[in-house]
Amino acid sequence: ETGVTQTPRHLVMGMTNKKSLKCEQHLGHNAMYWYKQSAKKPLELMFVYSLEERVENNSVPSRFSPECPNSSHLFLHLHTLQPEDSALYLCASSRGQVGSPLHFGNGTRLTVT
Amino acid sequence: AQTVTQSQPEMSVQEAETVTLSCTYDTSESDYYLFWYKQPPSRQMILVIRQEAYKQQNATENRFSVNFQKAAKSFSLKISDSQLGDAAMYFCAYRSASGNTGKLIFGQGTTLQVKP
């Protein structure tokens, strides 16, 4: 399924770099999510946007800054990251109806050196 | 707060056999949704099956079925006639029927190996 597209697929960055992750959905959904997947840990919800408004921020450090310019696009801006931020970052989208499943992208594998 | 627990980090099954993956959850809500997702090496999380808590009938999707025990807060996934392509990490997830975020709460995952 190519309904949710994430770029880049892999990213290596130094701790002083600034980079952005991009997510685009072609499913007509109105909610978008960022999840962090680390080894040996459950997926952690980072941010939720509903109708382009941020409705949840799960105590994520300020070095992660989300942006949702419209219902089809979601960004995660990264700056001054730490090595422990290395993980797989997954974007997802869903319809607004209760119980609608999330549709995920392929993720961005981020390595912070 | 809701939690989801998958107590089997790894499972294996012989091709064409049946395997059951366990999931338990904790919630004080009476209305919610449960999901099983599959994550193959391609990394994309793929929806396998969905269950509505207010429906007693167990959901089924081809070779995949669930055993939903609401009182016991248990939601296991049964894979019948296992195929090599079923090898993946499987995640159980919970979604509240209230609130406006629609977020999923995931378990730790179970890695399924399918032996030829």
Number of beta strands of chain B:
12
Report the mean per-residue pLDDT of chain B as an integer. Answer: 94
What composes the largest sheet of chain A? 7 strands, mixed
Query: Terminal Cα separation of chain B, in Å?
Result: 41 Å
Q: Of all protein chain pairs, which has the greatest interface, and how many residues does each chain bring to it?
A: A-B, 28 and 25 residues
Major sheet of chain B: size, sense and barrel closure? 6 strands, mixed
Task: Note down, in words, how this protein is organized.
- With 113 residues, chain A is mostly beta strands.
- In chain A, 0% of the residues lie in helices and 57% in strands.
- Chain A contains no helices and 11 strands.
- Chain A has strands at 4-7, 10-13, 18-25, 31-37, 44-50, 53-57, 64-70, 73-79, 87-94, 103-104, 108-112.
- In chain A, the strands form 2 sheets. In chain A, strands 2, 4, 5, 6, 9, 10 and 11 form a 7-stranded mixed β-sheet that branches.
- Chain A is globular and about 40 Å long.
- The mean pLDDT of chain A is 91.
- With 116 residues, chain B is mainly β.
- In chain B, strands 2, 5, 6, 10, 11 and 12 form a 6-stranded mixed β-sheet that branches. In chain B, strands 3-9-8-7 form a 4-stranded antiparallel β-sheet, with no helix packed on it.
- In chain B, strand 8 (64-69) and strand 9 form a beta hairpin.
- The A-B interface holds A 1, 31, 33, 40-43, 45, 48, 50, 55-56, 88, 90, 92, 94, 96, 98-107, 109 and B 4, 33, 35, 37, 42-47, 50, 52, 91, 95, 97, 100-109.
